[in-house]
Batch of 4 targets.
Target 1
Amino acid sequence: MDLESIIERAVTGLGYGFVDLESSPRARLLRVFIDVPAERAGQGGITVEDCAAVSNHLTRLFMVENIDYDRLEVSSPGLDRPLKRLTDFERFVGNEASVRLRIAVGNQRNFIGVIEAVEGGEIVLRMGATAHRFDFSQIEKARLVPNFDGSGKTEVRR
């Protein structure tokens, strides 16, 4: 089993959502991004206590699994969270996203628009009056674009 699968199983077993794993060369730094448990969705984000609980659990798990690393960081994905799965796109329909394609469409690989729908394996991204359809397998990287209103607050609709 690869490291990401081990971490995902552990994080979801604790009731949190696994968002992403970043690691430095030779996996000396492991950075794990988690999301709120399903029962807390819409009630606020990840707390320091959540991060500490996951970090403590992963530290013990890594000792048992003999996973060698120097530093572990656990945090929320932030306002510009990555969209890694089709379910991420479904969850954030109505939010603005930045999408980078593996292969250019015309001369363009980068798109910013509102996620309008997920239909089958395609993402519908609305840019002004134009809706673009991208096969999920062609998306290299995608992130939410934080929406800052005049109050300085950021709103991410879940």
Target 2
Amino acid sequence: MNKKEIEELIKFVSKSGVSEVSLETDSVKITIKNAAPRVIEQVVTAAPMMQMPMQAAPAPAPVAAAPAPAAAPAASKDESKYITVKSPMIGTFYRASSPDKPNFVNVGDEIKAGQVVCIIEAMKLFNEIESEISGRIVKVLVDNSSPVEYDQPLFLVDPS
């Protein structure tokens, strides 16, 4: 069983809603458990809720809050010209090959198609994720060592 077949199996299991799948052949034995990502999602969604009251408390005047919503639609219009690099699998996102090494890419870096932009660890396998496009990294959307879902946006790239 090659890497591509394993990735397809992981995608299938994550989409199907099955909690566990075991597959055994003459040379390979694989067990995929799908219960962990649901717990991770609850942790991720709880973090923004905790931050919201902290941000709302120090605001002394509603005037300071008015420019932020005006800037958000302008930013989303600007982001429409960017291309999103998405996660091809479920796993843990790493910006560097090890903690003592530099990040593969940073905001402002020029990248080429086929260049490694991050690593996603899935089932104790470290998968190098390559960019499918050339351009400049505008934004990193995921924190280092964070869990990611299939098709989750990782980077915004300006192709121009």
Target 3
Amino acid sequence: MKTQGEIEAAVCEAMARFMQEFMGRGPKEIRAHLVGNLVLVRLLGILSPAETSLAAVRPPEKGRDMLKDTRTYLIEMSRARIDSFVYECTDVDCVSMHHDISTITGEEVFVFTLSGSPELREMKRR
């Protein structure tokens, strides 16, 4: 069994590795939070220079929509791989995944719904 912090750290490490290997660029900052049977992951600084330029295309909806659609497609293509590392980190099956990206802030958010809450080991108090 892992502590909540160990699970959150493992999810951050796995997500950063996935982004680096699959998307070719890792986040500048990443945080994961385990809340019951939800895992929330927030990645900051994830847009490449090319994506930042695409997001600036006028009208703004055109570049934004193209970027969001492409990222969503790539993430959905990788769903099995993502589900696999979420399971490895939590020992619980992932039943749904929600994803969005902000072209304004360069922030990407994932929410994973697990089939149950992971069993947690209590942290030792000093």
Target 4
Amino acid sequence: MRVEEIVTDKKRLLDLLLLADEQEDMIDRYLDQGQLFALYDSNLKCAAVVLKLNDQECELKNIATLPSAQRQGYGTAMIRFLVTEFLGHYQTMYVGTGDIPETLTFYQKCGFRKSHRVKNFFTDNYREPIIDHGVHLVDMVYLRIDK
């Protein structure tokens, strides 16, 4: 496996990023300013975007694994890489997600712990309802991992 940063033509990974963030204009809000990484294991398996919030904090804005590569450790490997890479420069990394037990458990197994919640994030920021694992997402749940 190898991870490389994508610095040009970031939109070429848009189809993959849309698996984790279903509205293109929401991705447009962070893709140019964020750092985009791609994980390969003979071919592309996973992509992630990390955005600097300030000198102390960054946020994992998007992480998506191809459906054919899910549950094979690629997402976990990407998060391990990102935590190692970014917690050398920042005190805290955040990740925001829907209130889905399976997803929250995944991040917690990667070392994140619950931080805070933004009420009505999905209903206020997305044109269409976001349904994940049969659940209509309303609030954004943030988790954090610290140096």
